[in-house]
Amino acid sequence: MQPMLDRPHRPSPRRAPGAGLLAPLALATLLVGGATSAEAAPKKYHFELTAVTPKPEVKPDVAKAAVPRVEGQVKKAFESNPQVVAKLDGAPDKDSAQAYRKFLVQKGIAGAYYVTVEVTEASEEIEPMDKPNSQRLVVTIAVHMLGETIPGRTIGFTGDGRAKIKQEVGKTVRPRDREVAWDQAAEAAIADAMATVFKQLAKPPQKK
């Protein structure tokens, strides 16, 4: 503890009436200003997956491996992302546009979208390595997301994601090695696309 020092007593200066209210008032103003300047919470959206399809350029055997994994990762992302409301219990019929929009406002949802996903690129390659009895499995996945408004079905957003996973494997590529590589590539590609989507949705609407 610091030693206490004796100081000569000095009478307190007289204050004008009401001067004591300035500090609380200034503090209240500061608190209100701080609250308004704080960043708003991220908006929430409702996404409904309509389809996951491969681009014609993607080879059929590769698409067979990629599409189910991409679909699984999209559903997982929709269910786990804090900005996505996966289910809208009690929502009115989508054909009743005015009632549906009113419902979204009541639930605090900034927008609802049908989402289609296209696998634009998918490939699997084996690369040699300097290590004996080892090689590298390389899996690449790219996707394109399209969001259409509910109701109205007008274009609301687009998003692209791409990922390349390089996994060291043995002399023989086991089925489990492929599963892990494809799952990781699909997860990373979807995460990349979702980040693009939310960045786009966060932009203020353009003035017409």
Please explain how this structure is put together:
The chain has 208 residues and is an alpha+beta fold. The protein has a single domain (44-201), classed as Rossmann fold. 36% of the residues lie in helices and 30% in strands. The chain has a four-stranded mixed beta sheet. The longest helix has 27 residues, at 175-201. The radius of gyration is 28 Å and the shape is elongated.
Q: How many separate structural domains?
A: 1
The top level CATH class name: Alpha Beta
Strand arrangement in the largest pleated sheet: 1-2-3-4
CATH architecture classification: 3-Layer(aba) Sandwich
Over all CA atoms, what is the radius of gyration?
28 Å
- Count of helical segments? 4
Order of secondary-structure elements? HEHHEEEH
The major beta sheet can be summarized as: 4 strands, mixed
Structural class: alpha+beta
By CATH, the topology is Rossmann fold
- The residue fraction in helices comes out at 25-40%
Low-pLDDT residue intervals, each spanning 5 or more residues: 1-13, 16-38
Distance between the termini: 66 Å
Tell me what portion of residues adopts beta-strand conformation: 25-35%
Mean pLDDT: 85
- Number of separate strands: 4
